[in-house]
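input
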Amino acid sequence: MKILTVDARRLLIAFGSVVIVACGENAEPAGPATSGGAGAGGSVGATGGVGGAGSGALGGAAGTGKGGTGGTPSGGAGSAGSSAGVGGTGGVGTGGATGGVGGSAGSPAGNAGAPAGSGGAGNAGAAGSAAGAGASAGGAAGSASGGLAITPSEELWTGVRYYTGSVPSNRTSGPSQGPSAVFQVHNGSESTASVTVALAGTDAEFFEIVEPASFPADVAAGADLEVTLRLVTDNAALGAAPAQDDGATVLEASLTATAGTASAPSVRLYALVLTYVELEPTFGQILDAFPAWRSNIPASIRNDANPNPGTLPGVEAGTDEVAAPAFTKAVTGMPVTMLPIGRFSPPGQVPFGYHTPGNAGQRTTAGTLAEADDAHTNDKSRMLLPPLASGMTTFDPGSAPFAIFMEPAGVGTLSSEDAEGFDGAHRVKIWTLRDSGNNVIPNSYLVGGEEAANGDYQDYVFVLSNVTPG
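output
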């Protein structure tokens, strides 16, 4: 089966004042950075600095900061190029807030051109301004062109504890080795760099550098160094597991790269290690994987992986939950985004999309969550950033109202319109989405779907954007 991933570090889906970055299998709202005007008769200015990694959920691409393009005057001397060029946007983050200021401007340009020649070089473009609604901490200006950079700028992991002894009859151990991820350290300088990669942070000891075996490593100018990390999931190394209701073991660290006085923006590492294959994290632990997104969800699910309320609750007062059985598209000309950021359910393919209010049978599938062999994630069913088997995370419902749905096999329809769900219970909760500063992100919502009876609402977790309830 082909598994589709939409890489948060490469694809920005812009709409209105919000940008969603859709993530790959191993988070993704913010506006575009502003661009400088074209330089009058200038040649290309120096390259701007590389944007740092944003702690905002979504940053932009690395800064490029160009000057104006050189012109060919007719007659007299070419005038000096004006300050222009596309400013750099913030470094790529994961999740929902805007990236901040991008790379530094390039070096200033030259003087006016000769009478019959091409125009002088324009001044380098200024860095793009912070953009979009509710930016918190976006990418800081990076090192000058020619520095180090690491991609991806963030990695989210899901694993399962490995036990060398016996486990309970209704529980399953994870594999003997934890999941791994590959990073590229790029040397953008004009000479060979002696690069050292290291781990830092509270839980650095639980992430291992597998390759290269030793540092420093020489990296040629313009070349990449491939670095492989592995998550430590050995139960003895991790220590006592949390109680079942307390969810998973959360591990956080960062990956750094240096070469002499040069350094790359660090890479954020966040991992959920499940106690057994069958057990799950709390909703709060899932949301904490995306630090630029917040919502006032009930404490009963934020801090409890197995609430068991007896009867599934309706819309809960005192939280950010809204009564939203149906929606309309907020910004004409832009798609609706329904981005899966977490899934902790039984395995199987799960279609999701939208349907006509009052008629769940009249539906359109946007995408289908995948099922594929993976012992670390119960075949892609218990993980952050679940991949797709087919389809997309965007759709265009036109101007008509619509409800959203999920369709787990053997269960039935989960709908934002309770009456259209398989049993009429309130199985889809909708919460206002906020940024890290607790500001409401316009037209964006956090969605939790519940297919069972324990009321954890993290079977299917989405960020729904470019919508208005009603």
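quick obs: DSSP finds three helices and 25 strands in the chain.
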